[in-house]
Amino acid sequence: MDFIITSLQPWDIRIGSTIKNTATEIARKNRVLYVNPAIDYASYLRGARISDKRLRQVHPNLWVADMPSLIHSVGSLPTLLFNRLNRRNNLKIGKFIVETSRELGFHDYIHLIDTDLFRSLHLKEYIHPSISIYYRRDYVIGVPYWRKNGPRCEEALVRQSDIVLTNSSYFAGQLRTWNPDVHVINTGVNLELYDATKHWEKPAELQAIPSPLVGYTGFLTESRLDSELLYNLAQRHAECSFVLVGPEDVHFKNHPLHRLKNVIFTGRKEVQELPGYIQHFDVCINPQAVNPITEGNYPLKVDEYLAMGKPVIATSTHTMRDIFARHTHLATSAEEWSEALRMAIAESRDTELAQARITFAHTHSWEESVKSIYRIIKNYQHKKQ
């Protein structure tokens, strides 16, 4: 099969990416054209630049395309003007996709829309895919930029799509109002990278830090993480070293966490470096804030922690309770987190529990995730015959 993927995430993003891993797995057996987000005028003025490579092959069956011209900035426009200019954007993007797909010899392609609410809204009309799939794996309409025009665009995308995918039953329940053909698929984990049998040297930053090491990997951002919970936990447990690996937003950069002696910020690390940190943590954490953005979010990092066999403590959200409850410690209040931390530290050398976590994480491979997509496509095609 031939797949065209349009996404909010550019291919060259430096953090782990669900859609990139999905595209790479699909490309093992099919051809994939990954269309980078077109750059709008506002982004250009802020320093974004158009790639000088309109089309590049990054794997034997996978190409990345960059549109060679700018599009209108529409996010905060009034409804009527948004509708007019966003349709122009979609027409421009659609023409580019059709031309590029012809160049590659793609035909009867399946269009997978990765939460691309604006730039993909009218593409079904312009690129005429054999199947149109909308994939919601994040609650982006909870983010201020998307609140004005995002909700009605997402509703329109869900209604017009042939298949709707989500990565949580929480999201599925929200979207079935608009389309009955909604399916839940598990996100995968890169088992070749997060391999507990490999040995990583202890990162230099951790050499002189006393154990137990309580670690987090990922973007440190106010919209997703509970900074006050982290601060409370670090104060309660001065015997622990809290290692936070990843870039910070302004909120975290200015937070009193930086003044605590047992809290260490390492800054951004390459994805390939993260297993080396996780392997040397005693306990891994995901202290999410509870809000519409996080309640149904699938926390990929939890799969990564479990694949390395680590005890995990996470905020009790719908997805954590639904999928991960048997293999993690879930907590809400500071008191629950504190008790869970004591229990997790006590388990940190239990090899039997570690193996159970690894075995569970291996059921969430990218191969299994994409196999689920194939089954859903096949069932749809069968029904249409």
Described by strand count, sense and barrel closure, the largest sheet is:
8 strands, mixed
Based on Cα principal axes, name the global outline: globular
Strand order of the largest sheet: 3-4-2-1-5-6-7-8
State the distance separating the first and last CA atoms: 17 Å
List unreliable stretches of 5+ residues.
none
Q: Structural class from helices and strands?
A: alpha/beta
Helix content: 25-40%
Q: What is the H/E string?
A: EHEHEEHEHEHHEHEEHEHEHEHEHEHHH
What is the topological layout?
Elements: E1 2-7, H1 18-26, E2 31-35, H2 41-45, E3 55-59, E4 62-65, H3 79-104, E5 110-114, H4 123-127, E6 131-136, H5 144-147, H6 150-160, E7 163-166, H7 169-175, E8 182-184, E9 213-217, H8 227-236, E10 241-245, H9 250-253, E11 263-267, H10 274-279, E12 283-286, H11 300-307, E13 312-315, H12 318-324, E14 329-331, H13 334-347, H14 351-361, H15 366-384
Parallel strand pairs: 1-2, 1-5, 2-4, 5-6, 6-7, 7-8, 9-10, 9-12, 10-11, 12-13, 13-14
Antiparallel strand pairs: 3-4
Helix pairs in contact: 1-15, 11-14
Question: Would you write up a description of this structure?
Answer:
It is a single chain. It is built from 15 helices and 14 strands. It is α/β, with parallel strands linked by helices. It has an 8-stranded mixed sheet with strand order 3-4-2-1-5-6-7-8, sandwiched between helices. Strand 1, helix 1 and strand 2 form a beta-alpha-beta unit. The longest helix is centred in the N-terminal third of the chain and has 26 residues, at 79-104. The two termini are 17 Å apart. The mean pLDDT is 95.
